[in-house]
Amino acid sequence: MTGKTGFAPAADLQTSTVVTTAGDAISAGETSIPTQGDNMPAYHARPKDAEGPLPIVIVIQEIFGVHEHIRDLCRRLALEGYLAVAPELYFRQGDPNEYSDIPTLFSNLVSKVPDAQVLADLDHVANWAARNGGDPHRLLATGFCWGGRINWLYAAHNPQLKAAVAWYGKLVGEKTLNSPKHPVDIATDLNAPVLGLYGAEDTGIPLDTVETMRHALRAANATAEIVVYPGAGHAFNADYRPSYHEESAKDGWQRMLAWFRQYGGKKS
């Protein structure tokens, strides 16, 4: 389980800037999603008094898993009128809350999670949402850090996806058995418009790799846009960490909502 605060132990917690969303107008909680012969834990949130099928947003976790920050992002999306679902995508390989530092978490758990497994699990999340009050014709996705990279891959994987927003997900990298392709490799395969949100000061995602992705997207004539925020580093939306860059986070959030509206999500 997560620590006393609800945040991942490996996160560099800074509670003074944490954003907490009131739950009065939403219905939220834990659930279990059948997938590939297993039951995957997930968190979901929706408007309390919504009528009719809701647009769906799959929220793809950071490296830390579905901890309090990811749950709160689901609640924020619920207040905007979405059914938001955040699945625990590492659940077969282990629990991220058992690790107290990022390098060990990555080497002992995250690197062992196959992309193909994750993409198939996300399809089951979409199916679950469609059976539980979501509109399968308004399927959207967003992801953060580790989930940002997965978000690009999912936009090339699922032809039913209407739009995706990737927050500071790596674009290039070493190819392995578990990660045979990276976003730059699938630019020609995108099924959905993708908005990428990146920080100019992100030491883990150099700007030259962002430019490489932009070139790949242009060459593919893909419907995609990448925004780079000056002064922002990695995880600039993570309001519970010192990396939080409020101005960029707020602008990115509004851009995400506008992207979803533009490409068939929630109506204006």
Automatic annotation (TrEMBL):
<dbReference type="Pfam" id="PF01738">
    <property type="entry name" value="DLH"/>
</dbReference>
<dbReference type="GO" id="GO:0016787">
    <property type="term" value="F:hydrolase activity"/>
</dbReference>
<dbReference type="InterPro" id="IPR002925">
    <property type="entry name" value="Dienelactn_hydro"/>
</dbReference>
<protein>
    <submittedName>
        <fullName>Dienelactone hydrolase family protein</fullName>
    </submittedName>
</protein>
<dbReference type="InterPro" id="IPR029058">
    <property type="entry name" value="AB_hydrolase_fold"/>
</dbReference>
<feature type="domain" description="Dienelactone hydrolase">
    <location>
        <begin position="40"/>
        <end position="263"/>
    </location>
</feature>
<keyword id="KW-0378">Hydrolase</keyword>
<dbReference type="InterPro" id="IPR051049">
    <property type="entry name" value="Dienelactone_hydrolase-like"/>
</dbReference>
